[in-house]
Specification:
By secondary structure, the chain is mainly α. The protein is built from 15 helices and three strands. A three-stranded antiparallel sheet has the order 1-2-3. β1 and β2 form a beta hairpin. α4 packs antiparallel against α5, α4 packs across α12 and α8 packs across α10. The model has no long low-confidence stretch (mean pLDDT about 85).
Amino acid sequence: MDISYEKILYRIIKGRLRIKLGDLILYIYEPTGDALEESYEIYDEAYEKAYYSGCYVDQEVRNILYDLSLWNPGDDKKIKEIDKNIDNLKVDAFQSFFDPTRLAAIKTQIKYTEGQRNEITNRNQSLDHVTCRGVAKDTRNLWLVQECCYHTDGRKYEWDTWNVKKAMTRMAEYIITTEEFRMIARNDPWRGMWSVGKSTGNLFNKCVTDFTDGQRILCSYSSMYDNVYESMDRPPDKVVEDDICLDGWFVDQKRKYEKEKKQKEVDALTQNPKIANSQEVFVMASNQEAANQIYDLNDPIAMSTIKQRNAQIDQVRDTTGGLDFRKLNDIKQDMAIQGRQEGLQKMRGR
């Protein structure tokens, strides 16, 4: 693993960020449980103060965003559609892993689609800083940095030279990305530390409830990779090392599990002797998502029949707008086959 990742790892283990402000070196520690508990009081006080000072509440800002064409009621639905599209693309990436040209094209499409999502999110959140919630959140974060900043000799920094916002700007340059967490979680030296720590129950020399956010995130990803390595359908190592393709594997596995679960539910329903030998069984769905899942349980022949029927429906309606089911092509074919079989049985009987 590259030395830059090791640097991030030991920063996570120590639970602090070392920053330089001119000639001054400071440690900004992850907040303790006591600091976090008090910080919510700071948040509540700042929210109340902002509210009585005339700051906007969320609904007021939502109306302003709408007037400025920065938000519309369809944005939330569009984000869900984009997320589903991204999942589909990631599955395509996983299935196309050994086709470098196609894989590169899919990753480019994913990046573009994620950019669309970010554009919508940024528009929707562009006025968060003027809301009571935004002001309170900023006040709480400033207070936490002030409370958790120390000299290298252990003395608490009094902010007599540098402004706390300057430190926060510098901190923003060192945010640990998801890709960095995942790279560290699946490689040594952390992988070895994680293995020993799990067996001894001693990670970071502290109770789990005292883990920092960074430590919790790293452990979460480490557990995720444990599940991958232990899976009966474990993907190739090269796929595991590719975040997008591995995400696609996760989505694919989840969909297979959900389909199998739904199939078992449908099979249980069809055990009823009254419908066990039926050619077709209709299952009621509570919503569109459930309907889509049930539809996916049809085999290719059934799906082809459904498509043919949908194409014929308008053609077989009668003058009253009703539907004569017997005029559908597949039904006519079944009736013809049934008629021939009955004719043969009569001839055998004679």
